[in-house]
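Holo prediction — 7TS.
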Amino acid sequence: MPDTPFEVEVVRRDFPILATQVREKKLCYLDNAASTQKPRAVIDRLQEFYSRENANIHRGVHHLGELATDAYHDARKTVAKFLNAKSDKQVIFTRGTTESINLVATSWGRANLQKGDQILLTAMEHHANIVPWQLIAEQTGAVIKVIPTNDRAELDLDAYDQLLGEHTRILAICHISNSLGTLNPIKEIIAKAKAMGVTTLVDGAQGAPHLGADVQDLNCDFYAFSGHKIYGPTGIGILYGNQEIMENMPPYQGGGDMIQRVSFEKTTYKGLPERFEAGTPNIAGAAGLAAAIKYLGQFNQADIKAHESALLEYALGQLEDIDGITLYTKAVARTGVVSFNLEGVHAHDIATILDREGVAIRAGNHCTQPLMKTLGVPATARTSFALYNTKEEIDTLAASIIKARQLFK
Ligand code: 7TS
């Protein structure tokens, strides 16, 4: 049960990197949508695994092989519990959100898509939830349709109703926009798709860190997220899937651990989850991700949400009065991200000037080029929050933006 009170100054002490300096300035890390920092619990778990438990899984009859296998299996159970999955068989370890979506697009797509079928995406998707679908559309003759956004960068739900039709086979949608912070009403959106017999995938890369994910409550068929955006290691991610659907999907990659029997005449495959985990997995990464989930689990999720939401509203309030600023985070339901531009200053120059102040933000298209096109800009500057950020850091951010503006005046 979560029983640690959420106090941001105490939480910050759990993250060693936050105490470091950048160019002799206190680090102010506001690039969390790209990757979060790691608590000591995760760093220690990786060290412990490599110091005491490291070996390959499943193959060894020796002691270390057993410890590593246990660590890997336990990690899967921890993730299943975090997602409220019915069974840990439904949890596949991948390299991250990108690989999880590629797995579904390739394997599910090959088995289920035909010429004329429609794949429904939204205008705010990350390239990782666009390109895999384009690849499978090219191979199968399926067609991509896109739910547009309104002028607050919220999904146009009337357009969604129009687009959802008898040819729609899959809806793939982000929970939270990584570029703007728009929070999509995915439960309602999924319910409509399911009523039409449409398979659903949620890109939870930004959703899982800020909101958690209850896959039974969402009632989605697939849910993807990345370890490194939820305080865990890089190189590990999750694909949750509907068991019946996944049992009918062909393997994605072939190799060790996913086979039952191999001969040159015919190879048979294991069931879930091994069927989708060819080759030696990221065992330490899985253990590290489980440590991150346990770390988060010690707090009441509602406290973290309230803290992050207060940070976002504070940031919007501090930034909106800055001379020459345009804010793109306008959705009524929003979390985690503030995107902006400054008149007369390129987004990359803003990020470079802020870096001199120790403030880490991101500038660019954030792997959402189609969304940037609808906003009519090539790039934005983006600040994104995590549970360890503070109002003081936002004050530093605002002061640094004002400095950037003055430099270019
Ligand atoms: N989907 C969303 C919504 C994302 O924000 C990202 C990464 C991905 C998919 C891909 O995740 P990966 O872990 O497989 O790379 N987003 C970002 C970002 O906003 N800045 O850097 C990476």
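READOUT: The CA atoms of residues 359 and 397 lie 7 Å apart.
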